[in-house]
Design brief:
mainly alpha
Length: 427
């Protein structure tokens, strides 16, 4: 990088962080997750608003044709690895003791119904014309089903904390079901990403991708279990334990991402699994180290990422009202009905079940990340990308108020408390 490029690089980060801070705080004041404000702030300083003005500020600040330079993109990508690691660390499988039936049915219905609806609209209405070969239409259709079936664990976690529901039975079912849907969704998407990147026979690519992912998961959990044994023996021999733990965790994330890319497994999915493995197999006890990485990922890199989404395209130019409304409607019907019916089938009272449905309807950060990656891989076109971003924002906006409304003035508020365990995050 030349000196002028370095200067511009630092200036871009400054502008993006300040934008994230200002609009994130405004969103919080309005009772919304900060990610919503960060994304809207990115749209404001991006080609949609600032770039459309005659001032020329946007062109001076982001002169690249794609707005985001390769160097800045790589920098943010590193931060997203930490973000997905922390998201995996938030997944604790025993949070819903005694509620396995509700979690099982809610997860099953909450994945299958939106997956089928999303894949259906992908086949019936081939909105994206990104591919020339007819065999690849199914990739687009399956992606649409996948992105409509997932939930956003980080946004859901924040919503449950705001509503004081995290340690309730409703909160436990929502968190556990979200963990299952995220894991399945990322597995499917990682397979699709590997198939898109590969060349040759589609059937061989599908089988190869599944075998690689399965093998990678097994090896990852074996490695983490082995690391647990080593760390137990070494824990009293390391000075400055917190610093050493931070460095070793970051090295683990980067090494896992490097091996995953070589194995053609999506790096974000790989480090997400690493976080799950650390939380559930490693029994990692250095909470201070995790808190430092949590802050770096959630308060520094994540805001940069969500502001950068708004810089990637002109949201007004690519906005299609009928397409966005259709995707939003299918997304809400599929997830609320699927998860809600599943929770009710598991024996949950109907108001609680509806609350579970609305809680899991939030696509938020995960929906945005998967949509952004799919656009980069040319699975979807620009209009579908914008529609999915809008769907992720709107479902996140309505999730909290809808849950609050469902529980208003009802004895459901006096819900059973469950053991939720410690969290590593700070907000």
């Amino acid at each position: 990088m030349e000196h002028t490029d370095m200067s511009l690089f630092f200036l871009q980060i400054c502008v993006m962080l300040l934008t994230a801070l200002i609009f994130g705080q405004i969103a919080k004041k309005l009772g919304q997750p900060s990610v919503i404000g960060e994304l809207l702030g990115g749209i404001l300083i991006g080609p949609t608003v600032l770039g459309a003005s005659s001032l020329g500020v946007f062109d001076e600040l982001f002169p690249m044709e794609t707005s985001i330079s390769p160097e800045l993109d790589r920098f943010i990508e590193f931060g997203m690895l930490l973000f997905m690691f922390i998201a995996g660390m938030e997944m604790k499988w025993n949070i819903a003791k005694g509620l396995k039936k509700q979690v099982c049915f809610s997860s099953l219905f909450g994945i299958l119904i939106p997956l089928c609806l999303g894949a259906g609209i992908g086949f019936i209405f081939p909105i994206s014309q990104a591919y020339d070969r007819s065999a690849e239409q199914w990739i687009y259709a399956l992606f649409m089903g996948t992105v409509l079936s997932i939930s956003s664990l980080p946004v859901i976690l924040k919503t449950l904390l705001d509503l004081n529901l995290l340690k309730s039975d409703v909160g436990a079912v929502i968190m556990s079901s979200s963990a299952v849907s995220d894991l399945i969704g990322w597995t499917i998407f990682s397979c699709l990403a590997s198939i898109v990147k590969s060349e040759g026979d589609v059937a061989a690519a599908v089988i190869g991708s599944m075998l690689k992912i399965a093998g990678f998961i097994v090896l990852l959990f074996i490695a983490v279990y082995g690391a647990r044994k080593v760390s137990t023996k070494m824990k009293n021999k390391i000075t400055r334990k917190e610093t050493a733990s931070i460095i070793l965790l970051i090295v683990s994330v980067l090494f896992t991402a490097a091996i995953a890319e070589k194995a053609e497994v999506h790096s974000l999915f790989a480090v997400f699994l690493l976080g799950v493995a650390f939380r559930n197999c490693m029994k990692f006890t250095n909470v201070g180290a995790i808190r430092h990485i949590y802050w770096l990922a959630m308060e520094f890199f994540a805001p940069l990422y969500f502001v950068s989404i708004g810089l990637k395209t002109n949201f007004l130019y690519a906005f299609d009202l009928s397409l966005t409304a259709g995707i939003l409607l299918i997304a809400c019907i599929g997830k609320i009905m699927g998860s809600g019916l599943g929770a009710a089938a598991g024996g949950m009272e109907w108001r609680k079940a509806a609350c579970v449905g609305f809680g899991l309807n939030s696509r938020g950060t995960i929906g945005i990340m998967i949509s952004s990656t799919a656009w980069e891989l040319n699975i979807i076109d620009e209009k579908v990308f914008v529609a999915l971003i809008m769907m992720s924002i709107i479902t996140s906006l309505i999730s909290g108020p809808a849950m609050k409304k469902m529980l208003e003035g009802n004895t459901v508020a006096l819900m059973k408390t469950v053991e939720g365990g410690e969290r590593y995050g700070t907000n």
